[in-house]
Amino acid sequence: MDFTKILSNNPNILILGAGITGTALIKFLEQEDCQLFLFDEKKIDSVKIKQFQELSENFKNIKFDLILKSPGIKPTHPVHEFLLQSKIPIYSEIEFAKFFFKGNILGITGTDGKSTTTALTNHIIKSFFPKTEMGGNIGLPFVSFCKKDLDFAILELSSYQLDDSNLLNLNSTAFLNLAPDHLERHITMENYKEAKKKIINRENKNSFFVTSEKLLPNLEFEKLNSPTQLKIFGYKKNLDAFINTDQQRIITNIFSYPYKNFRLKGNHNLENLAASILLSESVGVPSNSIQESIKSFEGLKYRFQFIKNWNGIEIINDSKSTNIHSMLSGISGIKNENLILYLGGKEKGEELTPLLNRLKEINSTIFLFGEAREKWFSEIQKTKSEKVFLFETLEECISQTKKIIESEKIDKIIFSPACASFDQFKNFEDRGEKFNSLIEKYFPS
Q: CA 388, CA 368: separation in Å to the nearest integer?
């Protein structure tokens, strides 16, 4: 679609949703000669935009030349369903911004680890190609910087953004892993997987697609007839990125990267690192530059983030863990340590069996809080009956922690909720910030 041609004809443009993405689209389009319309149930303060809050007759009588959709608008929303019937094409913000961007685009998706991998890939590539920015589902919306003179855009892409888009055919992409999540929107795992698979380039033989040895069989990659160059990471010698835990190296066809000084812990982060290395190699970052960047990357806030060592006990903030798969990835490398785990929040209706099986394998005391506590308590208690405690709030969990510390040897306190945050917090960042402040309150330096 030639969006420049549309914009040159004083079009009527409808933006669906005034969240972060919709607001960025408004800012971009206010500089263009067009008539802007917005649909959002929340009132915004603007005299330049005609806003609709409901599917009124006035709304139905307008002929729109272009419709741009925010990812937060569900496909089942009445307005979206009405517009689909009108046969006017609906585009995602990512598709729209891609049209204006002149550099190379790297896209990263997966159930877990995509924010860390996006930030790490950006960190590595930017060390050699300074004209690089990241955005998408992390940081700024793509449309906020799509007209900048950049060599690379590194985009985290959610299943919502991909589901809303046609095939994007980006330069290099990664699909890290897959586990049940967002099924309230996608309904089935097959729908969720197919949305994620849109990240794979179906046209360009010079593009790259990075994925894991574990995920590849589930993708049915060969059926896509994609010419993209496949790169696989994992724990076998013959892979494009071999994670050698004995030698503490990630070995590619180009270089053997020691990761002893990589600050992020856990096998899941080694997989994120392997994906980032393959993506960075695919765009020509030299191995020595990649190696130096591995040492200097500090990680993201609230993603298995080391907060402090209090009297020999490591305290970890993993508020970004919003589902069971993410939580289990975080503690995957833990074996013979005594833990206190804070779990809870707004549960997503996931199958608890993987969590229960993992709890049988580790020495842990469980503190449950939030909406999920009652349901999870009855299940977890069967596994660890003498070591599960129930609290209404996160602060109650933390305030009661010292009683356990005084009677048992504890090596780590890990806040990895495995649930959404919306029962008691604005988002996972708000939850993570609150956790840090409570740790300072009850475990001062």
A: 7
| Strand 305-310 to 313-317 pairing | antiparallel
DSSP H helices in 31-134: 57-60, 78-85, 93-100, 114-128
Question: What's the one-letter identity of residue 223?
Answer: K
| Assigned token pair, 435 | 């956790």
Residues listed for the chain: 445
Distance CA 179, CA 212 (A): 13
Domain annotation for the chain: domains and CATH numbers: 3-88 (3.40.50.720), 95-296 (3.40.1190.10), 305-442 (3.90.190.20)
Sheet of 12-16: strand order equals 49-52, 35-39, 12-16, 66-69, 90-92
Under 8 Å CB-to-CB from 256, ≥6 apart: which residues? 249, 250
Handedness of CA 434, 437, 438, 439 (dihedral sign): positive
Range list of β-strands (E), 208-319: 208-212, 229-234, 241-244, 249-252, 256-258, 305-310, 313-317
* Token representation of residue 238: 């013959």
Q: What is the pLDDT along the chain (445 residues), one digit of tens a residue?
A: 899 999 999 999 999 999 899 999 999 999 899 999 999 988 887 768 998 988 898 899 999 999 999 998 888 888 998 998 888 889 999 999 999 999 999 999 998 899 999 999 999 999 999 999 999 999 999 999 999 999 999 999 999 999 999 999 999 999 999 987 666 676 788 988 999 999 999 999 999 999 999 999 999 999 999 999 999 999 999 999 999 999 999 999 999 999 999 988 888 899 999 999 999 999 999 999 999 999 999 888 898 888 999 999 999 999 999 999 889 988 887 888 999 999 999 988 888 999 999 998 899 999 999 999 999 998 898 877 668 999 999 999 999 999 999 989 999 999 999 999 999 999 999 999 999 999 999 999 8
Could you tell me where the beta strands, DSSP code E, fall in 7-54? Answer: 12-16, 35-39, 49-52
Q: Which of 408, 171, 432, 418 is nearest to 299 (CA)?
A: 432
Q: How far apart are CA 242 and CA 259, in angstroms?
A: 12
Entry pTM: 0.84
The sheet carrying 313-317 orders its strands as 305-310, 313-317, 412-415, 338-344, 363-369, 388-390
Partners of 230 in beta bridges? 209
Q: What is the DSSP string of 310-375?
A: ETTEEEEE-TT--SHHHHHHHTTT--S-EEEEEEESB------HHHHHHHHHSEEEEEEESTTHHH
SS3 label, residue 133: strand
